[in-house]
Amino acid sequence: MEENKQEIIDEKDEAQNEESEQTVVEETDELEQLRQEKEEINNRLLRLQADYDNFRRRTQKEKEADRKYRSQSLVEELIPALDNFERALQVEVDGDAAKNFADGMKMVYDQFKAALEKEGVEEIPAKGEEFDPHMHQAIMQVEDENYESNIVVEELQKGYRLKDRVIRPSMVKVNQ
Amino acid sequence: MEENKQEIIDEKDEAQNEESEQTVVEETDELEQLRQEKEEINNRLLRLQADYDNFRRRTQKEKEADRKYRSQSLVEELIPALDNFERALQVEVDGDAAKNFADGMKMVYDQFKAALEKEGVEEIPAKGEEFDPHMHQAIMQVEDENYESNIVVEELQKGYRLKDRVIRPSMVKVNQ
């Protein structure tokens, strides 16, 4: 009788265990799936955050560079006019009236130069400087005992830079 | 005997059910928590995505505006020099040499104007135009039968705009 009872209980147990295991296995599967999904979304979140941060940093840098060199295209347009202004001012004039006119024009020229300088435009130093291929374009080589080797002896056309960027290199004669 | 057996089985069942329920409840709690966490991360992901998109759009717009008006600060600096250039050119000169000099300067002036125009700088039309408070600054009011009411009869100082932005309004006399 005891044995019989135990048998019955065992049978019942087995059936119930199976059912219960079934449930637990299903729940565990779902848990596992959810954990994976959560992990995946979390990774996407982290990647997106990193992308966003990079984009912000890059944008900030671009903005600063854009701002720093914002005048470049207008400066490039103005430089040939400035060349002609200088050339025109070199003409000698006679008579008081013409001299006054020329003085007035020299003042206008200075005002233009001052406006450009305020925006960061500078003439590139040339004559007497050591030849620098980043800033000087050598048009001619000469042999001049008065200068040391590799020194700019004459500037043929002014060069300009905008802050640290060369807009137009100086055209120069260099001592061999 | 049958009853007795059933009782024993029921007892055993109850104990087992309790244990099984305990597990299921724990797993369900964890499932629920995971679902909530997943939902939360997902919401953060969506918000971040929306923020990022907004930031990108705003940055793009700012970039376009920066680009459009990039020359503004240099233009503002150059306008007073341009005023003086015009004033200086209005002086009458005598003699061929001085006239040649003045012609050369007029060409330089035209070149400056062309460089500025290429960057989008325009003179604001004034004389004969209807008075527009966005572009014209009325310095004087006059009564002139030759003009209709609210028409600019004289320009006292040129105004300039950079594309659609007024950099300096024209100073004008307006007919009452």
Structure in words:
Chains A, B: This is Protein GrpE. Chains A, B: Homodimer. Chains A, B: It is found in: Cytoplasm. Two copies of one chain form a homodimer. With 176 residues, the first copy, chain A, is α+β, with helices and mostly antiparallel strands. Chain A folds into two domains: 1-68; 72-175, Nucleotide Exchange Factor Grpe, Chain A, domain 2. Chain A has three helices and six strands. In chain A, the strands form two sheets. The first copy, chain A, has a three-stranded antiparallel beta sheet with strand order 1-4-5. In chain A, a hairpin with a 2-residue loop joins strand 4 (160-162) and strand 5 (165-168). In chain A, helix 2 (72-89) packs antiparallel against helix 3. Chain A is elongated and about 135 Å long. The termini of chain A are far apart. At the A-B interface, helix 1, helix 2 and helix 3 of A face helix 1, helix 2 and helix 3 of B.
Provide tags for this entry:
61% helix, three-stranded antiparallel beta sheet, GrpE_CC (chains A, B), Nucleotide Exchange Factor Grpe, Chain A, domain 2, chaperone (chains A, B), adenyl-nucleotide exchange factor activity (chains A, B), 176 residues, 2 domains, alpha+beta, protein homodimerization activity (chains A, B), homodimer, three-stranded mixed beta sheet
